[in-house]
Structures are given as structure tokens and as C-alpha cells.
């Protein structure tokens, strides 16, 4: 049932989330890393999730329902290395609020631009996931932009920052452009469905 996805709601506060009658797969990462494009490419839908070439501030938690299996939740992105203190505080507050609800999170997909080394906020996010015992995978996204040696370097950098990751299992490349990683992610999601 992974071929059916529909938009449910954009919640601008954690009080406005849909009722927790389905488990959740959450998408996180900095703004502009490609979370919306990930949803569109994964489900082969051109404009289901709005994409933007300018780093915007998606402040909402965007809920999509996948079959009758789970919600896919596009969480607010965080900025680049130099974000304002205000923006960073807002992001931390909403993430802590969301995790404190104790919703049934099956998996977190943490997207990182494969061209950049993980930032302080990537590390903060990783800590939240660990503290809350949420299973997670890191996707090195936009892999179409790199050549073989750059890809190898990106993998090394990610492993240096997050040594617990296992390549091919919890660390993978993804591209919304050429479908790298598509099959692997779909397999992972259909495994969740069987649980
Ligand atoms: N080359 C390439 N560009 C991508 C990929 N994914 C997203 N983008 C581009 O990155 C920009 C931001 O994407 P978007 O999905 O809106 O990011 P979001 O802010 O995380 O939702 C857009 O210009 C996308 O076209 C990818 O896999 N490869
Ligand atoms: Mg987006």
C-alpha cells in the first residue's frame, strides 16, 4: 500500500497535529536539503510536496498519510551553519515539543546534503533521536551532484561525525533526480508496514 500518499495537514503548532491513530515516519534535516523533493520522488508525485530553490523557513509539520500504514511527517527544517539565535531556538522548541508528545515514531530519516559536512544542528538532531530512542537512518542527499571520489569522501565525513552508522543499512545515498536510494528506502518502508 506504499503507492498511495495523500496530504493531510500543515500543523503550525504541536497542538494542531492530527490524532495519533497511525505511527509516524519523520523526515528531518536543514531547510533546502531536499525533504519535499524526497517525498515527491519517493512516491513519484511531481507537486505533492512544495519545493523551493531558495532556502525558506518551513515552520509547519507537514503530515502525509501513506496507505493505511503510517504518516510521513515533514518536520521544520533548520538553517545553515549561521542561523539566527531566534531561528535556532524556535527549531529546538518545536522539536522538543514534538518529541515530548511521545508519538509512535517508527523511523526518522535524517537528510544531509552530501556536499556538506554535518553541521552543529545535524548533531543536535542526532542527539534528540538518540535520547528519544528513535530508530534513524541518515540519507546523504543530492548524490547526483557528486563524482565517485566525492561520494566516498561524503561517506567518510558522515561516519566520522556519526560513527554508529552502518553503510548500506543506516547510511545511504539518495537522489531525487536519478533515483539513487529509491529502492532501498521503499524496502525499508515496506518492512515497517509489516510490523
Ligand atoms: N540535484 C538535486 N537537487 C535536489 C535534490 N533534492 C532536492 N533538490 C533541490 O534542492 C532545492 C530544495 O529542495 P526542497 O525539496 O524544497 O528542500 P526542503 O526545504 O528540504 O523541502 C530545490 O531546488 C530542489 O530542486 C536532489 O536529490 N538532487
Ligand atoms: Mg520542504
Largest sheet geometry: 7 strands, mixed
Give the CATH architecture: 3-Layer(aba) Sandwich
Taken from the alpha-carbon principal axes, the silhouette is globular
Q: Please compute the radius of gyration using only Cα atoms.
A: 16 Å
Find the CATH superfamily.
Answer: P-loop containing nucleotide triphosphate hydrolases
| CATH fold node name | Rossmann fold
Present as ligands are: guanosine-5'-diphosphate, magnesium ion
Description:
It is a single chain. This protein is α/β, with parallel strands linked by helices and 195 residues long. The protein has a single domain (5-194), classed as 3-Layer(aba) Sandwich (Rossmann fold). It contains 5 helices and 7 strands; from the N terminus they run ββαββαβαβαβα. It has a 7-stranded mixed beta sheet with strand order 1-3-4-2-5-6-7. β6 (136-141), α4 (148-161) and β7 (171-173) form a beta-alpha-beta unit. The two termini are 14 Å apart. The structure holds guanosine-5'-diphosphate (GDP) and magnesium ion. Magnesium ion binds next to α1.
Sequence-ordered SSE layout with sheet pairings:
Blueprint: E1 5-11, E2 24-28, H1 35-42, E3 61-66, E4 70-74, H2 85-100, E5 105-113, H3 120-131, E6 136-141, H4 148-161, E7 171-173, H5 182-194
Parallel strand pairs: 2-4, 2-5, 5-6, 6-7
Antiparallel strand pairs: 1-3, 3-4
The structure holds guanosine-5'-diphosphate and magnesium ion.
Amino acid at each position: 500500500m506504499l503507492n498511495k500518499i495523500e496530504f493531510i495537514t500543515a500543523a503550525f503548532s504541536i497542538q494542531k497535529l492530527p490524532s495519533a491513530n497511525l505511527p509516524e515516519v519523520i523526515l528531518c534535516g536543514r531547510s533546502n536539503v531536499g525533504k519535499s523533493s524526497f517525498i515527491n520522488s519517493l512516491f513519484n508525485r511531481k507537486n505533492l510536496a512544495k519545493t523551493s530553490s531558495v532556502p525558506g523557513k518551513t515552520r509547519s509539520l507537514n503530515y502525509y498519510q501513506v496507505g493505511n500504514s503510517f504518516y510521513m511527517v515533514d518536520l521544520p527544517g533548520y538553517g545553515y551553519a549561521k542561523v539566527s539565535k531566534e531561528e535556532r531556538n524556535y527549531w529546538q522548541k518545536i522539536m522538543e515539543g514534538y518529541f515530548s508528545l511521545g508519538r509512535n515514531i517508527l523511523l526518522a530519516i535524517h537528510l544531509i546534503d552530501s556536499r556538506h559536512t554535518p553541521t552543529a544542528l545535524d548533531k543536535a538532531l542526532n542527539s534528540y533521536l538518540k535520547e528519544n530512542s528513535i530508530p534513524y537512518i541518515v540519507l546523504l542527499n543530492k548524490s547526483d551532484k557528486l563524482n565517485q571520489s566525492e561520494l566516498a569522501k561524503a561517506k567518510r565525513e558522515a561516519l566520522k561525525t556519526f560513527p554508529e552508522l552502518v553503510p548500506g543499512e543506516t547510511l545511504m545515498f539518495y537522489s531525487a533526480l536519478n533515483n539513487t536510494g529509491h529502492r532501498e528506502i521503499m524496502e525499508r518502508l515496506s518492512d515497517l508496514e509489516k510490523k
